[in-house]
Amino acid sequence: MPTVCVIDYGAGNLHSAVRGLERAAPDASWRVAVSAEPSEVLAADRIVLPGVGAFASCAAGLRARPGLVDALVEATAERKLPFLGICVGMQLLADLGEEHGEVEGLGFVSGKVRALKADGLRLPHMGWNEVVPVADHPLLPPEGDAYFVHSFIFEATDESDIIAAADYGERFPAAVARENVAGAQFHPEKSGAYGQAFLKNFLEWRP
Amino acid sequence: MSLKTRLIPCLDVKDGRVVKGVNFVSLRDAGDPVEAAAAYAEAGADEICFLDITASHENRGTLLETVTHTAQEALCPLTVGGGVRSAEDVLALLRAGADKIAINSAAVRDPAVLTASALAAGSQAVVCAIDAKNVAPGRWEIFTHGGRKPTGIDAVQFAEEAERRGAGEILLTSMDRDGVKTGYDVELLKAVTSAVNIPVVASGGAGELHHLSEAVTVGGASAVLAASIFHFGTFTIEEAKKAMIADGVPMRRTW
């Protein structure tokens, strides 16, 4: 029975992510667990880290759960479990966040999180925008629109970690992936058929 | 490649039921908000808005359950408004599954509720809903209690204050146009969209498809909200989007 663990660390609602994954599951044998317990995280086959709100409060929420960060490090670096961060969950993969002062991230994909330079455009970047693949990566559906809501972006140190881009005032990473760790700046669980295809790809991903 | 304009059907929900019937042939129960929202999402709605018009506050539990089920079924963002009084209300609705919460009268009574909500939930989740009436050429005033009670507050200045206090979006309803189907108040929209740098949702007045485009091309709106033109089956989401694309408005294609 394959299990996906959605990390519950107080960063917003998890219902949509859980339901999105359940819908995207290739068959009925899949289980979606919601937990912040290190033992449950390490017992899972795949991990999803959601996140809404500010980088600093999400990072603090992660660190407030005893043993959680260590479990995530072990799961991704040693056990090489497929890992997906969504929105602020993707931004937390970076080394550093600049929202509300400099705060350390998980450092799974090297980069920093900085404000979107949306010259003259309204912020937050809120709504449906085109996700353009920039690499041939198994997570990516063919081109389509996904739902974004954010004012900060993931600036990847290594360009080759960027697998998809979007445009809003500037071109920014819509999705990143390094080995078994991936992140989506958009919300696949809110992104209709495109998002469902992305989640299904994640569940079938063999990095 | 650009950000698309959002098309948002709005459902009035009372005690867990949609009060204006929704005209979908496929619905088993036109009063079930979960089914209606899922049908709209399936039809290509870019976001769903629930307006809770429940008279009593005791039925909040019903709304929370409805929000949870809707968020699970509709694969698009969900905005909930109506009777939201505090940052605690905002957090409860977000935990139930809403993505954004519209705050209306409570913000007019005390705009500090916007600050508190943005701090607690992030600006992206806080929508300031403004109901305005044209009171003089180029001047709009905020009214509460379904448009009966003037507040003396200038709508454009209040929108600026809402942005300063951390609201991530303005939901701007023209009370003069609401339900009249003569088009959005584009002058009001222009005044607010040029005063703030956060997205503005146009509401009140959509009767024809070209009204939707006007709110964007002339009024500067980032999204258009409509109720009756969709509920009564006058137009489908797809017809509306095709008409907007023909008018040069970037829309998400779902057909």
UniProtKB/TrEMBL annotation, chain A:
InterPro entries, sorted: Class_I_gatase-like (IPR029062), GATASE (IPR017926), Imidazole-glycPsynth_HisH (IPR010139)
Active site: 87 (nucleophile), 187, 189
GO BP, sorted A to Z: L-histidine biosynthetic process
Any Pfam family matching the protein: GATase
Record organism: Parvularcula mediterranea
Protein name in UniProt: Imidazole glycerol phosphate synthase subunit HisH
Organism domain of life: Bacteria
Gene3D superfamilies: 3.40.50.880
Keywords for this protein: Amino-acid biosynthesis, Cytoplasm, Glutamine amidotransferase, Histidine biosynthesis, Hydrolase, Lyase
Automatic annotation (TrEMBL), chain B:
Active site: 12, 131
UniProt xrefs under InterPro entries: Aldolase_TIM, His_biosynth, HisF, IGPS_HisA/HisF, RibuloseP-bd_barrel
Pathway note: Amino-acid biosynthesis; L-histidine biosynthesis; L-histidine from 5-phospho-alpha-D-ribose 1-diphosphate: step 5/9
An example molecular function term from Gene Ontology annotations: imidazoleglycerol-phosphate synthase activity
Family: Belongs to the HisA/HisF family.
GO aspect biological process, one term: L-histidine biosynthetic process
NCBIfam families on file: hisF
Function noted in UniProt: IGPS catalyzes the conversion of PRFAR and glutamine to IGP, AICAR and glutamate. The HisF subunit catalyzes the cyclization activity that produces IGP and AICAR from PRFAR using the ammonia provided by the HisH subunit.
Enzyme class: lyase
Lyase in keyword set: yes
PANTHER family in UniProt: IMIDAZOLE GLYCEROL PHOSPHATE SYNTHASE HISHF (PTHR21235:SF2), IMIDAZOLE GLYCEROL PHOSPHATE SYNTHASE SUBUNIT HISF/H IGP SYNTHASE SUBUNIT HISF/H (PTHR21235)
Database matches in CDD domains: HisF
Assigned EC number: 4.3.2.10
Gene3D superfamilies in alphabetical order: Aldolase class I
Localisation: Cytoplasm
Subunit structure, as described in the record: Heterodimer of HisH and HisF.
Annotated Gene Ontology cellular component terms: cytoplasm
Keywords: Amino-acid biosynthesis, Cytoplasm, Histidine biosynthesis, Lyase
Identification of the protein by name: Imidazole glycerol phosphate synthase subunit HisF
Coiled coil: none
Catalytic activity: 5-[(5-phospho-1-deoxy-D-ribulos-1-ylimino)methylamino]-1-(5-phospho-beta-D-ribosyl)imidazole-4-carboxamide + L-glutamine = D-erythro-1-(imidazol-4-yl)glycerol 3-phosphate + 5-amino-1-(5-phospho-beta-D-ribosyl)imidazole-4-carboxamide + L-glutamate + H(+)
SUPFAM superfamilies hit by this protein: Ribulose-phoshate binding barrel (SSF51366)
